[in-house]
Every structure is written in structure tokens, then in C-alpha cells.
């Protein structure tokens, strides 16, 4: 293995991000989803054949197509900006000025280093500056940014930044507690460990507000 390959392996095995944004090429959407499915289907078929699998078996015949559709339409669907949820907001007519917390949002993502699942919970909060957002939209924002090859730190930041933009306030926070199967099922094979990341904006940087939020969620996440 060359020094360059060793360097890239070191980054991947230690789950280090090199980009605050998802590294997406400019021509990422020059072809249709259907064309992507056909290309990926052939790649999956070749991978399975290389591993020695018999694709004439009834159980495996449809696997390349199923995997390709899953990649494009489901687990990596958040790469497509056309699938970005509309963050419907409303005037805060009832003048609620305290913290709003949406906790235990189920999170399924994919580690960009090994393409293995990240499974956990996201806890999101904001303090209104005159605008509120539908509760389900918070879940959908988490889902949208999770459905792509990800690094947990980046995902946490993206959720906060999207809500800040939608709500017109810096007062947004997010904590994610998740298991990485690239740690739990391979490599060190530590099935108990989980990773916690956080991003605090505006008032949530203040010790008292941060503590109130953390008290609400208590980080008693169950997987």
C-alpha cells in the first residue's frame, strides 16, 4: 500500500471529515435517477460476481437492482436537492418565547468511510424569534440530511444551519447520539460504544440555556 493510500485509510478508519459540506461533484445530477440505477446495478452485479456469488440463484437474481434502487431512491436520496423538504414556518402568534425541544428523532444514516449504517437519535431545539416551524418538518430536515454518505459532525451542523435559515434565528441546537456499524460490526467491533456530537447556536452557547436543553434530553438514548 502506498503512503497516499495509507493516509486515506487512516482518515477513513478514524472517521475524520475533510469537508464541512458533502463532497458532491458539480455534475452529480447530469443524469437521471433511472440512469444512475442502471449503472449502479451493473456495479453491484460485478461486485457480487467478483466475490464468487451465483447470481443465477433465485434469491440473488434481483439483488443488484434492489441495491441500486435503495441507493438512489432511499438511503442516499438526501443527495438530491429536489428532495429537500419545504420548511414551512408560521408566525408565532401565541408569543411562545421558551425553548421548544423535539427529542428522540429516529436517525438512519450511512458512514461515508465504509458505507455502513449509522443508527441513533437526534435531539433538536430552538427558541423562536417570531417564527415557528411545524414539528414534522424538524424530523424531515433530520431525515433529509441523514440520507447521504455522512460524517456525524457534519450532519449535526447541517441540521442546525438549515433550521437557523428557516427560522431566522441563531438560537438552534442539535445533539446526536448514534452507533456506527463501522465501529460496532468491524474493526474494533465495540458493540456498546456510541458517538455523541453537538452544535449550539445563539443563546444555546450560554451555559444556562445549554444545560436546560441537555437536562430535557438527558441523553438516555436507547437503540
TrEMBL record:
InterPro entries: GTP-CH-I_C/QueF (IPR043133), GTP-CH-I_N (IPR043134), GTP_CycHdrlase_I (IPR001474), GTP_CycHdrlase_I_CS (IPR018234), GTP_CycHdrlase_I_dom (IPR020602)
Binding residues annotated for Zn(2+), in chain numbering: 111, 114, 182
Catalysis: reaction(s): GTP + H2O = 7,8-dihydroneopterin 3'-triphosphate + formate + H(+)
Keywords on record: GTP-binding, Hydrolase, Metal-binding, Nucleotide-binding, One-carbon metabolism, Zinc
One Pfam family in the UniProt entry: GTP_cyclohydroI
Keyword Repeat: no
Domain of life: Bacteria
Pathway entry: Cofactor biosynthesis; 7,8-dihydroneopterin triphosphate biosynthesis; 7,8-dihydroneopterin triphosphate from GTP: step 1/1
GO molecular function: GTP cyclohydrolase I activity
Domain GTP cyclohydrolase I: 40-217
EC number: 3.5.4.16
Family: Belongs to the GTP cyclohydrolase I family.
Subunit annotation: Homopolymer.
PANTHER family (UniProt xref): GTP CYCLOHYDROLASE 1, GTP CYCLOHYDROLASE I
Stated name of the protein: GTP cyclohydrolase 1
Gene from which this protein is expressed: folE
